[in-house]
Amino acid sequence: MLGHTIEPMLCQAVGIVAHIFLNWLLVWKYEYGVTGAGIATSIANLFIYWMLLQVTKNLEDIKGAIVEPKLSSARDIIEYLKLGIPSAFMLAIEVWAQELMNLEAGLFSVNAQAANVILVNVFILVLMFSYGMQ
Predict the structure, then answer these.
(1) DSSP-H helix ranges across the chain
(2) Cα angle, residue 125 at apex, residues 120 and 131 outer, rounded to 5°
(3) Mind listing the pLDDT tens digit for each residue in 38-47?
(4) What pTM did the predictor assign?
(5) Other Cβ atoms within 10 Å of 68 Cβ, number
(6) pLDDT in tens, 49-102
(7) CB 8 within 8 A of CB 52
(8) How many other C-beta atoms are found inside a 10 Å radius of the C-beta of residue 63?
(9) What is the CA radius of gyration of the chain?
């Protein structure tokens, strides 16, 4: 999506605002606690996914790239795996570190854990702005 960095950034920003609202609604207003934080995170991530899917389906530049997978798609898959597995592992380590911080915040209180989730999402929003400005 070269040249189209603003649209995904806006999707992420809207998703983060929705996540903050859902956390407030489910954790504090309806008092679901940790369960509410998990539900809010899942709903917000599905919402972000849906928005990004709509953006990619409507961008003329990449509309032809969105196709059903075929058997020929697996040709030379080893080359892709050589690059993809280390990249996925680095991303997984980053996510695991964030999840460990969230678990540690939960040792203090549910409010601390909810605040940590909000701060991580704000951090992601700040990163999306910097990616969008490139």
Answers:
(1) 6-23, 34-58, 77-108, 110-133
(2) 125
(3) 999 999 999 9
(4) 0.52
(5) 5
(6) 999 988 888 888 877 777 777 888 788 889 989 999 999 999 899 889 988 988
(7) yes
(8) 11
(9) 18
